[in-house]
Amino acid sequence: GSTLLAGCSSNAGIDQLSSDVQTLSAKVEQLSNDVNAMRSDVQAAKDDAARANQRLDNKVFRICK
């Protein structure tokens, strides 16, 4: 890390980088939470679709027999 920070001329620059990293970390965590929430929503939608398809299959089977 020291070679990366060697170009910073003051502690203010290092403080700004640290603040930016913290902000980015918080945003990454929020995105991760959003993805996990979407994952469960997608699974619920898949389950609903499967149940709807099963109901349609049952109706078609009853009509066709």
TrEMBL record:
Keywords: Cell outer membrane, Cell wall, Coiled coil, Lipoprotein, Membrane, Palmitate, Peptidoglycan-anchor, Repeat, Secreted, Signal. A lipid is attached at residue 8 (S-diacylglycerol cysteine). The keyword Secreted applies. SUPFAM superfamilies: Outer membrane lipoprotein. Pfam families: LPP (PF04728). Residues 14-60 form the Lipoprotein leucine-zipper domain. InterPro entries: Lipoprotein_leucine-zipper_dom, MOM_Lpp. It comes from the Bacteria. A lipid is attached at residue 8 (N-palmitoyl cysteine). The modification N6-murein peptidoglycan lysine is found at residue 65. One of its GO terms (cellular component) is outer membrane. Residues 14-55 form a coiled coil. Plays an important role in virulence. A highly abundant outer membrane lipoprotein that controls the distance between the inner and outer membranes. The only protein known to be covalently linked to the peptidoglycan network (PGN). Also non-covalently binds the PGN. The link between the cell outer membrane and PGN contributes to maintenance of the structural and functional integrity of the cell envelope, and maintains the correct distance between the PGN and the outer membrane. This is Major outer membrane lipoprotein. It comes from Salmonella enterica subsp. enterica serovar Mbandaka. The lineage of its organism: Bacteria, Pseudomonadati, Pseudomonadota, Gammaproteobacteria, Enterobacterales.
